[in-house]
Amino acid sequence: MSADEFAAQIHAEFDFLGGEVADHVLALYPVSDYDAPIWALVAVDSDINVTCELRNTARAAVGRNTEPEQSRPAIWRYLFTHQVENDPSLNILRAFHKEELFFLFGHPDELGDPYVPGADEIQLSELLIGYWTRFAASEDPNGGAAQHWPRYGPDDQILQLDVSSTQTSGYHNPQCDYLTTLFHRIPVTGP
Questions:
Q1: Helices in 47-171 by DSSP H: which ranges?
Q2: 60, pLDDT greater than 90
Q3: How far apart are CA 191 and CA 188, in angstroms?
Q4: 35 CB contacts (<8 Å, ≥6 apart)?
Q5: Spatial contact of 104 and 181, defined as CB atoms under 8 Å apart
Q6: What's the whole-model pTM score?
């Protein structure tokens, strides 16, 4: 996909809301920020279909206020960013939808036929199992030597899960702030 094809696709997806909308989306996802134009399109569609909706749901659950953490509902958000290491056909997909489930359930070896996970991937699987096990037992995923997973709150902190997990905040907030304004403009059809 070329940069022109990316722009044409964005216009095809958004022009029904007005041409200025597509132009604004293109400004929020400059092709120069991505390795290839296709990844800019993946980012747009991922944000619309998953990222922004999850962020908005988490925000609604905890509220956008300054209440102390202990008085807010316990919400933990994550972003799984691991690219499969030992299979070029899977690696090209980058982190893909539901990939983390193979790690969470202790079966990264089932990612391919056959797939041999690297030592880092075995550790990543153990990390996810630990987080979810602690959460199931205590309603808090934190403990042990694992990277601290911050509760979600007004600062929009999430844990980026990978072989080197890190905390991040405000992931795609400018994009989601704008895209969220469009949701009420989409015509609803049906009974």
A1: 52-62, 88-91, 99-104, 119-138
A2: no
A3: 9
A4: none
A5: no
A6: 0.82
Residue 161 pairs with which residues in a beta bridge? 80
Give the DSSP per-residue string, 23-44.
Answer: HHHHHHS-GGGSSSHHHHHHHH
Q: Where are the domains of the chain?
A: 3-67+172-183, 74-169
- Summarised one tens digit per residue, pLDDT across range 136-188 is 999 999 998 899 999 988 889 999 999 999 999 999 999 999 999 987 766 66
Give the separation between CA 182 and CA 184, rounded to whole angstroms.
Answer: 6
Amino acid at the residue 102:
F
For residue 3, the surrounding DSSP H or E stretch is helix 3-14
Any idea of the CA torsion for 153, 173, 40, 112, to the nearest 10 degrees? Answer: 0
The CA distance from 161 to 169, in Å, is 13
CA 143 – CA 118 distance, rounded (Å): 24
What secondary structure letter does DSSP report for 161?
E
How many of the other CB atoms lie within 10 Å of CB of 153?
Answer: 21
d(CA 129, CA 144): 12
Nearest to 100 by CA among 76, 129, 138: 129
91, 117, 93: which is closest to 105 by C-alpha? 117
Q: Residue 2 has which token pair? A: 């070329």
Query: Which sign, positive or negative, has the C-alpha torsion 157, 140, 72, 75?
Result: positive
